[in-house]
Amino acid sequence: DKPNVRKMGGSHQEKQLHQLLEKQKQFKLAALQAKKKGEVNQAKEYLRIAKGFDKLIEASNCGLPVDMATVPVPPSAKIALETDFDIVSAEDCTPGSPGSEDDILEKLEKDLIVQIKKSLETRNHFKAVGDVASANRFEQQALHSKKDLDLVRVARKHKHPVPRYHYETRSFSIVQCNTDLGDNDLELTIAQGVNYNVPNPKEIDTYIRFEFPWPTEEPYRDKTATVYNTNNPVYDEKFTLPIQRNVRACQRVFKRHAIKCEVWSKGCSLWFCSSGCCSSIHSCFSSVRGFFRGDSLIGTALVKLQPLETKCMLHESFDLMDGRKTVGGKLEVKVRLRNPIQAKQVERVEEKWLVIDH
To answer: Which residues form the signal peptide (predicted)?
Structure first.
């Protein structure tokens, strides 16, 4: 039943209640239209959202404040927001003379398009981490920028004066989270080697063997494919490794241990025969090692896991070592988790924001 709204002479509360009822009505209408199109799941989702307005309407009717910035954006506005904000590109616009009103309007248009895209990307991130209120807030923010964009485009099309506008600094907290990963996934990317210190840089064939120290009884081991004829190899291979973030023994692994990445050269050891031992089996047998070798270790990179206690991504280049001695060259490695091991990674972000003064 429709709430009994007290007459308050157009008060803020009454206007707010009217907005809530109108938005709920739009979701119910969208559900009906989706059902007629045979989109049953979409219709159910719209009805679920419409039902969520009941508590907000009840709170507003009792005189309690409602944060309208967190209210879901109606379906019709959302469709327009996501499909219409970048129809006009910079190439479609006729540039005016330097410093002209058209130049200013073009700059405003570009800034607003960037804002809308940024707001929608942030909305999608919050939606993926389950923060519905923040997702709705950024959707509302995108909608406001879309209205400003429409106003700027009308002014530009009809040669109206530049509307009043200002820039302001907006700050917000965002939880860094790799939403494409599961809670117990660790993604290891062996990116590339950098300037391996070898006597045959244009002939060396290398691959990476790595050992992840979990489970402790049987550590996870694997290797990349071989990259040929370069001491700056691009491996670009990803491995998804299982972890158990809620197990204390696994948490201790992150605190104390590292992923061991070994760089191996394929074939006979050119470390000990730089004159081209492959051309003579005899010379390989008479090398320092005294026998024909298969593969040889160039160096080892240790990727310490401790930073992942408080960050969800580690991306660095690590020196190649022989024990405690550097041997020259680096290995670029990236490690990602859905969330850090100890606590969520919350960062404060500040953005310069354009607002058109209506």
So the answer is: none
Cβ atoms of 216 and 253 within 8 Å: the answer is yes
Cβ neighbourhood burial of 158 (10 Å; 0-12, 13-18, 19+): exposed
Query: Taking a C-beta distance cutoff of 8 angstroms, is the pair 301, 320 a contact?
Result: yes
Residue 324, amino acid: R
Tokens of 72: 């879901």
pLDDT attached to residue 79: 56
> pLDDT tens for residues 211-258?
999 999 999 999 999 999 999 999 999 999 999 999 999 999 999 999
Angle, vertex CA 138, rays to CA 133 and CA 143, nearest 5: 125
Query: How many whole angstroms from its chain centre is CA 42?
Result: 26
The answer to whether 279 and 268 have CB atoms below 8 angstroms apart is no
For 233, phi then psi, to 5°, come to -75, 140
Output the DSSP codes for 203-259: T--EEEEEEE--SSSS-EEEEPPPB-S-SS-EEEEEEEEE--TTSHHHHHHHHH-EE
- Per-chain mean pLDDT for the chain: 84
More confident residue, 286 or 205: 205
Strand-pairing partners, residue 80, are: none
